[in-house]
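Researcher: I've got a protein sequence and the SMILES for 2-acetamido-2-deoxy-beta-D-glucopyranose. Could you write out the 3D structure of the bound complex as structure tokens? I'd like something to compare against our soaking experiments later this week.
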Amino acid sequence: MWFPRCVRALLSVFIVTSSLNVFTALSAAKQPHIVFILADDYGWYDVGYHGSEIKTPNLDQLSASGVRLENYYVQPLCTPSRNQLMTGRYQIRTGMQHSIIWPCQPYCVPLDETLLPQLMREAGYSTHMVGKWHLGMYKKDCHPTKRGFDSYFGYLTGSEDYYDHIRCAPITPLNLTRCALDFREGEEVATAYKGAYSTELFSERASRIIQTHKSNKPLFLYVALQAVHAPLQVPERYLTPYSFIKDHNRRVYAGMVSAMDEAVGNITSALKQSGLWENTVLVFSTDNGGQTLTGGSNWPLRGRKWTLWEGGVRGVGFVASPLINQPGSVSRELIHISDWLPTLVNLAGGKTKSTKPLDGFNVWNTISKGHASPRLELLHNIDPLFEDTSPCNGNSWAHSGFNVSIHAAIRWSNWKLLTGYPGCDVWFPQPDSDNSESKILEMHSLKPVMLFDVEKDPEERTELSAKFPTVVDYLLGRLSVYQKQALPINYPDEDPKCDPGPEGAWGPWA
Ligand SMILES: *[C@@H]1O[C@H](CO)[C@@H](O)[C@H](O)[C@H]1NC(C)=O
Ligand SMILES: *[C@@H]1O[C@H](CO)[C@@H](O)[C@H](O)[C@H]1NC(C)=O
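Model: Sure. Here is the predicted complex with 2-acetamido-2-deoxy-beta-D-glucopyranose in place.
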């Protein structure tokens, strides 16, 4: 117990120490290694400790030894969550409030944003990234190695093949779909990994970085796994325990989750074997809710990936570390993916002075000691361009006035307000249960403004706007304040120059 407190005490002493050399030398010895594992499209009901039929012994044990975050939020999509993780700022601040970055769109997280790995590097860390970037790549300045990572091994876009690492994407202005490699080692195209299943490839690479890490510097390792995003692909051996699952998608998905669970186990073992574990903080998080179209489940939450319902934004997440003051606890405090930047940089003894104003909070005392969260409010998003690309039952809003026709949601204390069409709004049945299809197709009367008490009603079943008009007014007012601060949406047309040709690889073209 005394050790982490001691680290903090030392850090505060260092902050007032005038000699920079003393600061660097001593703090370097105490700075924790930080390993951040991000899963892709991993649903609320897909982890063993939420009751899933999918087995995740490593995630269950690791989280049980740390702190499970049960009131933890992410963004509903890949790029937005990663953007907020890396900047500590809401999407409205970067003009990236709409959708993901498609391979041929010429933009990336604005280059005047300071990213998490840059701050870790400034604090004296070795910084490494393995896996999916998806924060823009049209020019080299946007790439991970130009934005704070010493090394990079992975892919720049999303949803590629797990084995051949080929990503097929439309190039609209050329009226064609291009299938090309998306895999890099540093800034170079890497062709040598064809055939290797990415979950194994990435966990091996992460383990190697850990094993070869020189312990005179603290380590910051960001592992953005491809698992468990579609396409549904997994080596046969992971499927064997799941013959009892009748639904094909769910069965393959379950195998993919098992592979991911093993990957997390392997990375943790590498940390333990290399002696780094005693001074490591490991964060595990999903990037958004599960995709029910490809095997994921967020039961009993409403909606799914791509929506502002809890099924899209309430994320699986935990922290495991011998440095936690209250190991083995469950946190029900409000925490958001934008909180990691200030939290981790502070843990690292670094500074957030060079960032633009942060939306994230330092939540380390909330996680480690069970203190109340400093976060009282959470802007889920405001996206005036939102369209659900695969509406589940045809619901959509006829756009009338400004405010409430816009796809937006905000959380304050126990309240969550949604405006516009939040996206596919059904309660998908528990996997492998006998709930009938008709339940999926049930129509719901959505209102342009909806209020839920998500503390009492996490399933968003009882709409309360008529009962609490003052709460509604207050939260609509907060949304207007945020909307006034929002940058115009940056969502450029595809640039045909992106085309790598049939033999090339996706990569920078500008
Ligand atoms: C796009 O390609 C398809 C198939 O090759 C063709 O039928 C269609 O006319 C093309 N459209 C345009 C706008 O060129
Ligand atoms: C985990 O490590 C074992 C032993 O090295 C290896 O056989 C297995 O493929 C690894 N699993 C993953 C997902 O990397």
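Model: The pocket of 2-acetamido-2-deoxy-beta-D-glucopyranose (ligand 1) is lined by residues 175 (CB under 6 Å). The longest helix spans residues 248-273.
Researcher: Great, I'll pass this along to the crystallography team.
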